[in-house]
Design goal:
Shape: globular
CATH class: Alpha Beta
CATH superfamily: Gcn5-related N-acetyltransferase (GNAT)
Number of domains: 1
Strand content: 25-35%
Structural class: alpha+beta
Largest sheet: 4 strands, antiparallel
Helix content: 25-40%
Strand order of the largest sheet: 1-2-3-4
CATH topology: Aminopeptidase
Order of helices and strands: EEHHEEEE
Distance between the termini: 18 Å
Length: about 90
């Protein structure tokens, strides 16, 4: 499943996205809102969690891909949070 706009394709991530995902999640500037860049294992865990979410819940974060170049430039979508001691999904 995917969505397209004039500039973007939004789609479920696949194992082939690992390298592009690592480029984002291991960038110190991009990850300044987190506790810092992810390790290789943390990137793999992040991707595995999205793949599992698609299977278990039918949704997760999607890859944002520039249609013109095919470059993955980000992620968007519904994610799970644990803010008050219980799991909740947020848009």
């Amino acid at each position: 499943m995917h969505l397209t706009t004039e500039r973007l394709t939004l789609r479920e991530m696949t194992p082939a996205d690992l390298s592009d995902l690592a480029s984002m999640l291991q960038d110190p500037v991009a990850m300044s809102a987190y506790e810092g860049p992810f390790s290789d294992d943390e990137v793999q865990d992040w991707l595995d969690r999205q793949l599992q979410n698609y299977q278990q819940y039918g949704y997760g974060l999607w890859a944002m891909v520039l249609r013109e170049s095919g470059d993955m430039i980000g992620q968007c979508g519904i994610t799970w949070c644990f803010p008050y001691g219980e799991w909740t999904s947020h848009f």
